[in-house]
Amino acid sequence: MTTVFINGLGLIGSSLARAIKTVDPTIKIIAADQDPTTLKFALKKQIIDQATSKLTAAQNADFIILATPVTIIIETLKRLAKLKLKPGVIITDVGSTKAQVMAAAKFLPAKTTFIGGHPMAGSHKSGVTAGRTDLFENAFYFLIAPAVDSFQIKRLKELLRATKVKWLELSAWEHDYLVGQISHLPHIIAAALVNQTQHAFDHSALGMRMAAGGFKSITRIASADPQMWTAILKTNQAVVVRQLTDYLQELTTIKQQLLAADQTAIYNFFAAAKTSRDQLGPEKAGRVPDFYDLFVNIPDQVGAIAQITKILAQAKLNLVNLHILEIREEIDGILQLTFMSQTDQLQAKEVLIANNYQVIQRK
Ligand SMILES: NC(=O)c1ccc[n+]([C@@H]2O[C@H](COP(=O)([O-])OP(=O)(O)OC[C@H]3O[C@@H](n4cnc5c(N)ncnc54)[C@H](O)[C@@H]3O)[C@@H](O)[C@H]2O)c1
Ligand SMILES: O=C(O)C(=O)C[C@]1(C(=O)O)C=C[C@@H](O)C=C1
């Protein structure tokens, strides 16, 4: 029997677990996570077969998948290096940066194989409840496997077959440069724009809430998990600093053109971007999975959130994510509820309105 050990069962770890069970339900999945409710949820939903708090449970595994924030992946590799692992075991990770991960993997015991991995798909939602089998469909899945036997690479691809990804091998440095520009820098830009907009509207009653499609499309990823992004930037610092410098130069240039009212230069700025962006084509690969949100006004009272989750549980509606937005003293807050399907979203809306809540649906 094949045994898979997963450390970190959030969005990515649990999506891989779901995909592995689709390929072969008899594969035994043991998972560790610092959050006990994550493990409880995964056991209940049969995403995994066994939960553990001990890394030593990895010792009997045929595959070890590391799916925590990238700084924790690096620490875990150092701890795995001190364990007696099963000969022939394949260890892989899903971290968003690769050079420091590959360096830490050099100390793993002999007779183990490390293949660095990074599915180039995901979401701004996090946690086990947001995981899904089809999260990676048609997306690129980067592998860093210098001098790894092709048979071992084939074994890993076979295990993750149900993800339906497009595999691409490259070096750790190529990888970090590539994703620095197309993923890490955009996350900084989105967060900076949201922060600057928030400051700009500090004294305005309207402001950001009035934003339409433009602001929302460029800033969706500013909702991503800050812990994950702090870890990513820590491990790709030098690359991203260079790319950020180039980006700032681009902004300085357009600012000067604006100041000079140089219509031709401004036109060329937008025209060049349009030509490049149009070549990206429809967002089939690496698309953003659909999630369905509701926004509920909640009073500033103890137990107000528990009341809502109780109503949803009684209606047997599963929440993917729950976020508290704008709770300020003596002012009603807004609760963002996220559902996996439109059916759940509409049922939740109905049941909450029936319970006298004000509900806004944005999709
Ligand atoms: N979210 C994305 O879009 C995306 C896409 C590709 C790769 N990644 C990478 O995948 C990894 C996981 O990201 P995610 O989106 O699944 O995040 P997540 O927050 O959904 O999941 C991380 C999980 O790790 C657990 N965890 C944190 N510290 C731990 C520790 N010390 N020991 C055990 N468990 C611990 C958390 O409880 C959580 O369940 C990160 O390295 C990230 O860079 C993320
Ligand atoms: O779609 C999103 O929300 C993502 O941010 C996914 C995204 C990205 O495209 O930047 C984020 C980090 C990962 O390492 C890979 C993919």
TrEMBL record:
<dbReference type="GO" id="GO:0008977">
    <property type="term" value="F:prephenate dehydrogenase (NAD+) activity"/>
</dbReference>
<keyword id="KW-0560">Oxidoreductase</keyword>
<dbReference type="InterPro" id="IPR003099">
    <property type="entry name" value="Prephen_DH"/>
</dbReference>
<dbReference type="InterPro" id="IPR046826">
    <property type="entry name" value="PDH_N"/>
</dbReference>
<dbReference type="InterPro" id="IPR050812">
    <property type="entry name" value="Preph/Arog_dehydrog"/>
</dbReference>
<dbReference type="InterPro" id="IPR002912">
    <property type="entry name" value="ACT_dom"/>
</dbReference>
<keyword id="KW-0057">Aromatic amino acid biosynthesis</keyword>
<keyword id="KW-0520">NAD</keyword>
<keyword id="KW-0827">Tyrosine biosynthesis</keyword>
<feature type="domain" description="ACT">
    <location>
        <begin position="293"/>
        <end position="363"/>
    </location>
</feature>
<comment type="pathway">
    <text>Amino-acid biosynthesis; L-tyrosine biosynthesis; (4-hydroxyphenyl)pyruvate from prephenate (NAD(+) route): step 1/1.</text>
</comment>
<protein>
    <recommendedName>
        <fullName>Prephenate dehydrogenase</fullName>
        <ecNumber>1.3.1.12</ecNumber>
    </recommendedName>
</protein>
<dbReference type="InterPro" id="IPR045865">
    <property type="entry name" value="ACT-like_dom_sf"/>
</dbReference>
<dbReference type="Pfam" id="PF20463">
    <property type="entry name" value="PDH_C"/>
</dbReference>
<dbReference type="GO" id="GO:0006571">
    <property type="term" value="P:tyrosine biosynthetic process"/>
</dbReference>
<feature type="domain" description="Prephenate/arogenate dehydrogenase">
    <location>
        <begin position="2"/>
        <end position="288"/>
    </location>
</feature>
<dbReference type="GO" id="GO:0070403">
    <property type="term" value="F:NAD+ binding"/>
</dbReference>
<dbReference type="InterPro" id="IPR036291">
    <property type="entry name" value="NAD(P)-bd_dom_sf"/>
</dbReference>
<dbReference type="Pfam" id="PF02153">
    <property type="entry name" value="PDH_N"/>
</dbReference>
<dbReference type="InterPro" id="IPR008927">
    <property type="entry name" value="6-PGluconate_DH-like_C_sf"/>
</dbReference>
<dbReference type="InterPro" id="IPR046825">
    <property type="entry name" value="PDH_C"/>
</dbReference>
<dbReference type="GO" id="GO:0004665">
    <property type="term" value="F:prephenate dehydrogenase (NADP+) activity"/>
</dbReference>
<keyword id="KW-0028">Amino-acid biosynthesis</keyword>
<comment type="similarity">
    <text>Belongs to the prephenate/arogenate dehydrogenase family.</text>
</comment>
